[in-house]
Specification:
about 400 residues; alpha+beta; Deoxyribonuclease I, Chain A; six-stranded mixed β-sheet; 11 strands; about 15% strand
Length: about 400
């Protein structure tokens, strides 16, 4: 597991800079952060910072000036989250991409968007592109198409990984990762079966098959003499399979993992990569974040998948992040969007108009006793000068939008 411990020894000047950086600029889709300095902005962004070969992202962001990372950085600078999860960020063991994107893009002004500094950063390996040694797609041969026979779809280890950037200290010693947790060890797991009822995976495959398509991380963030557990993941898309629905069932259980983890009565079966068992303490504060690849009412996920979190007794859903751009683009693009049941104001992803249409896929969900001061999705109207940052296909940034929540801790 790779860790970054930065800014442990701060000068007084650096501390002042860090405090100034907590004051955000106005973000599209919601007002600028207001209120006391204990308001903390948490965000998730599937930034599509994935590349076609190992080391390509690290090489690209080792120098400034690459077009797509520049746009991604500007979106982050304009939203100005204090704690940020980036999905689809290729992992490298030397943290070259993690540091390079920060130093050469986030720390560089983009027009009127001022540089933003994150003294604390974290990344760790992903299951994507890690060959299982088995024929997981039942094509007849193990390794004939390595991405399908890997623990998570990817052309190389770490593709489509994750990264965390934080203005607040990360308690690195108490980070928990669940990369190696086996799917079969979840009680009542929705393990896929063929239409005739036979298991899709045999016993040998289930003996190694991991639940997480990327990983699940519990990253403790130290805020105001307390700890908030940043619970992050990126469940597999519930598509690209067959009638066995192996990706749909896995998506459901990847989402379920956090629903069980924050419930002491249901988390006893869970173990982390260091062998420690159980989930969060009953009184622990948490924020669940990530591209969950599941809309409450539309798309291809199993019905009720995301409701495992939205309807959870410990999760605060009183405020739903929204944007004017989601509504506008749903109407302009038409197609599958015309038949959707979910409110397009809550959409966070601009997918094919043919199918599945635009969806709410990305979430920031705090514990119920954490007050939500404000929330939004960075999706400006076409008349907004910032609209080109989001754009339309082919996207200058990502097909997902940054989602943020201000929490009064």
């Amino acid at each position: 597991m790779k860790r970054r411990r930065l800014g442990v020894l701060l000068t007084v000047g650096a501390m002042v800079i860090a405090m100034v950086a907590l004051i955000p600029a106005e973000a599209a889709g919601g007002s600028a952060k207001a209120g006391p300095p204990t308001d903390v902005r948490f965000a998730t962004f599937n930034a599509s910072l994935n590349r076609g070969s190992a080391g390509a992202l690290a090489a690209e962001v080792s120098a400034p000036g690459s077009a797509q990372p520049d746009v991604i950085a500007e979106i982050i600078q304009r939203a100005r989250p204090d704690v940020l999860l980036v999905n689809e960020f290729d992992y490298d063991a030397g943290d070259v991409a993690l540091d390079g994107f920060h130093d050469n893009y986030l720390m560089v002004d983009h027009g009127t968007a001022e540089a933003i500094e994150y003294l604390y950063r974290y990344t760790a390996p992903s299951n994507t592109g890690v060959f299982s040694g088995f024929d997981l797609d039942n094509s007849g041969a193990a390794g004939d198409f390595v991405p399908n026979d890997s623990f998570g779809f990817g052309f190389f280890p770490g593709q489509f990984g994750m990264a965390i950037y934080s203005m607040y200290p990360i308690d690195f010693d108490n980070v928990r990762t669940f990369q190696n947790f086996l799917w079969k060890d979840m009680p009542g797991a929705l393990l896929p079966v063929e239409p005739d009822g036979t298991p899709w995976y045999d016993d040998a495959e289930l003996g190694v098959f991991r639940l997480s398509s990327k990983s699940h991380w519990d990253v403790p963030i130290e805020i105001n003499n307390g700890t908030v557990h940043f619970l992050v993941s990126h469940p597999t898309p519930p598509v690209f399979d067959g009638p066995e629905d192996r990706n749909g069932t896995r998506n459901f259980d990847e989402i379920r993992f956090w629903a069980d983890y924050v419930h002491p009565g249901r988390s006893g079966y869970i173990y982390d990569d260091n062998g420690s068992s159980g989930g969060l303490a009953a009184n622990a504060l948490f924020v669940i974040a990530g591209d969950q690849n599941s809309d409450p009412l539309d798309g291809d996920s199993i019905p009720g998948a995301i409701q495992q979190l939205l309807d959870h007794p410990k999760v605060n859903t009183k405020v739903t992040p929204s944007s004017p751009g989601g509504v506008e683009q749903s109407a302009l693009q038409g197609g599958a969007n015309t038949a959707h049941l979910s409110d397009p104001a809550f959409d966070t992803a601009d997918f094919s108009d043919f199918a599945p249409g635009n969806l709410r896929a990305d979430y920031v969900l705090p514990r119920k006793n954490m007050a939500i001061a404000d929330a939004g999705v960075f999706w400006p109207l076409t008349t907004d000068p910032l609209f080109p940052l989001a754009g339309t296909f082919p996207f200058p940034s990502s097909d997902h939008r940054l989602v943020w929540l201000d929490l009064s801790l």
